[in-house]
Amino acid sequence: MNPNWSELKREFQQRRETAEEARDKRRRAIYGLIPEIECLDRKIAETGIAFNRELIRLNPDAETIREFEKNINTMIDKKKKLLTNNGYPENYLDIVYTCKDCNDTGFLTDSEGKPGVVPCHCYRQLLVERFYDISNLNSDGQTGFEFFNELYYPDIKAPDTYGIQESPRSRAIKIKSKCLDFVNNFEKADFPNLLFTGPTGVGKTFLSKCIALEILKQGHTVLYLPASAMFDIIYRSKYRFNNEEMPDDAYRFILDAELLIIDDLGTESPSAAKYTELLTLLNYRSAKNTKAPCKTILSTNIEPEDLHITYSERIASRILGEFDILSLVGDDIRIIKRLNQSDKT
Ligand SMILES: [Zn+2]
Predict the structure, then answer these.
(1) How far is the CA of 9 from the centre of ligand 1 (A)?
(2) pTM score of the predicted model
């Protein structure tokens, strides 16, 4: 909770070191395979030093400077060609940072290319993650649209069992494509929020986390919270329950995250005060979304037509009016997976 800057700085330093070590490892291997590249690298470095010496002279000679630049560029081109001729991409020896926008410094460069004071999106995201102690949305290593498996949904039309005319599989495929539409239109103010409904184990949490990962890749801040945890934070933040130290930032992130995912809505212990908070939150976020991305995804076991029973009429109509409803149906995927596992053993 409440990370400080030096802690975050360490994390960024760690990321840069890891990226540099990976590059050094690739470079050592390449020097072994193509010794000419090692030779070129040394010459590029030497020329660079001489070039800089010329630049800082009192009256640098324009012709000499042009000559240095030409030399260096020729050597760089030669190096790239050697790499591609040997089957490597030309940028194979570049450092690959986790975040290309700030090279893992956490801050965007200013107009002169110097590290500035404007925090990068990855810095804001790290802050959110540390704040709520969310390590990784993909902690099981099996979250992401590439892991979506339509075969988990029955391909039979059984309106009496599933309550829909089409098969659960065809429904799931359509919903996946709607999720991708949401990802691709995330920055459009008029694109609706999403509400996942359906029984336990049909993939509501999975799909909302898949979306979260894509939105993170776009460089937006994402906050994923189970409803009960979220109400807890709001409640403590607003009412300073038990005199507990709870920075107001905790509530701010919930209000301002560019994508907020509230999972398992309806499992929190019911209270009228909470529902007022929920309405305030939804109102605030939808007003903010007209200026900058501020979208919300809800998931719940409650049927859309029953929302007004658990929540108020006002909340229900707000959700039904502003959210695209994605009703998943099927059998409990966790049970199917477990059965498949026991088949194999
Ligand atoms: Zn960054």
Answers:
(1) 12
(2) 0.71
